[in-house]
Amino acid sequence: MRKKELSYYVTSFFTEYLSGEAGLSINTIKSYRDAFILFYKYLEEAGICKISKLKMDMLNADNITGFLDWLEQSRCCSIRSRNQRLAALKAFCSYVIRRSPEESALCQGVLKIRIKKAPQKSVEYLSGAAIEYLLKMPNSHSMQGIRELAMIALMYESGCRVQELIDLRVGDIAFRSPNTLTLTGKGNKSRVVPISINAANILKAYLNSAGIDDTVHPVFVNRYNKTLSRSGVSYVLDKYGQIAHKARSDLFPSKLHPHILRHSKAMHLLENGVNLIYIRDFLGHSSVTTTEIYARCSPELKRKYIEQAGTLITETVEEYSDGEKEALIDWLRENI
């Protein structure tokens, strides 16, 4: 039996598996595609192989490791981007093993490559006062202003991702008690999130002024009535962010990115005592581990945890039991 080449597996991986069996979103598929484009580019630039002569054995651990280092060193990609590219290649190798077990030895070498640990960044978020200031900036009496106010209010109220905002349709909004949005996130997973009466009223005013009522129509479009782009969302927030920073540098960083509103909502929920499990579901995280980063980044929460621990101090000093030691270590690991 003739051995199948790399191009065969790549073609079936993208045309059959990812969108069909795996059911991945178009954005994830594009990310995987970009990983292969960059990998091919690396093989050519490094003089390893021309694209026209690609063979299956080019997908080995040494080449993949060299590719990952090239991403960081030559293309100045972040560790997160490096790990995303590796995840795409690992997903492909897992697929190949299922299709052709005879390629297991080659692919297992790639699957054993470990992700690179990145230094944990602090979560950047806005205070409640900053959010209040930001929401007062757009001119709600103009068509453009009410549209931009609705965008900002919705991003904060729902904690949605940028792509979720772009994909939102009029039919995904339920104006009732409580007012809700149905958001479709990563992996095409949907979740229903509540929004306040104020946010719902802003949204109603925008839709009425824009004359948008078709349930399949995107909630937000650009000036040409085309689907809003990620850069379009970033432009709106950056515009107000620059003005706000000049006026109140004590409240605003030098640049606002759309995700900062999502972070802000999560932090404000946490600081108001909402359980991490509910915040995980609200944000659409697949694991509470992802959500826990917010608990580690709030000085106010750390202060509360320390004060709570302080109330346990007694006048007498006794040795901890083994169980108490383990409980203390777990508490410190989770909260500090």
Summarize the structure in words.
By secondary structure, the protein is mainly alpha-helical. It folds into three domains: 6-111; 128-296, hpI Integrase, Chain A, CATH 1.10.443.10; 299-335, no CATH class. Helices cover 58% and strands 4% of the residues. The protein is built from 15 helices and three strands. The protein has a three-stranded antiparallel sheet with strand order 1-2-3. Strand 2 (179-184) and strand 3 form a beta hairpin. The radius of gyration is 24 Å and the shape is globular. The protein starts with 5 loop residues before the first helix and ends with a helix. Residues 4-97 form the Core-binding (CB) domain.
Q: What's the architecture of the largest domain in CATH terms? A: Orthogonal Bundle
* Structural class label: mainly alpha
Mean pLDDT: 85
| Overall strand count | 3
Helices, by number, come to: 15
CATH class call of the largest domain? Mainly Alpha
How many domains would you count in the coordinates?
3
With strands numbered from the N-terminus, the spatial order across the biggest sheet is 1-2-3
Strand percentage: under 5%
Q: Write the element-wise H/E pattern from the N-terminal end onward.
A: HHHHHHHHEEEHHHHHHH
Low-pLDDT ranges: 308-318
What is the quaternary state of this protein?
single chain
Q: Termini, distance in Å?
A: 58 Å
Radius of gyration over alpha carbons? 24 Å
